[in-house]
Amino acid sequence: MLPVPKGRAGAEFLKLTFAVRTMAGVSELESALQMEPAAFKALYSTEKPKLEENLIFFCQMGKRGLQATQLAQRLGYKEARNYEGAYREWLQKEG
């Protein structure tokens, strides 16, 4: 299980989580991660993640989170990871 980071890192995690949650789905993620930083910020109200940043993807059951992780890795986000327990596990343990 990947814990939510504390402090500033946690705040950045939550901002990125919000940005991803506003997307229509994995199909929108590909175009979002290829946007210029200014366009990303204008559309999602947060900074575009840098290629070297840790990205954690999740969904309700795990399938879309894994798809998003694989897509981000193909686009050069080598630190992209999938929260395998998905939202259900987090809700049981932390919610």
Automatic annotation (TrEMBL):
GO MF annotation, one: thiosulfate-thiol sulfurtransferase activity
- Which residue numbers delimit the Rhodanese domain? 37-95
Q: Which domain of life is it from?
A: Eukaryota
GO annotation, biological process: sulfide oxidation, using sulfide:quinone oxidoreductase
Q: Note the InterPro entries from the entry.
A: Rhodanese-like_dom, Rhodanese-like_dom_sf, TSTD1_mml
User: Which species is this record about?
Assistant: Bos taurus
Q: Which residues form the active site?
A: 59
Q: Which SUPFAM superfamilies match?
A: Rhodanese/Cell cycle control phosphatase (SSF52821)
Q: Name one Pfam family in it.
A: Rhodanese
| Protein name in UniProt | Thiosulfate sulfurtransferase like domain containing 1
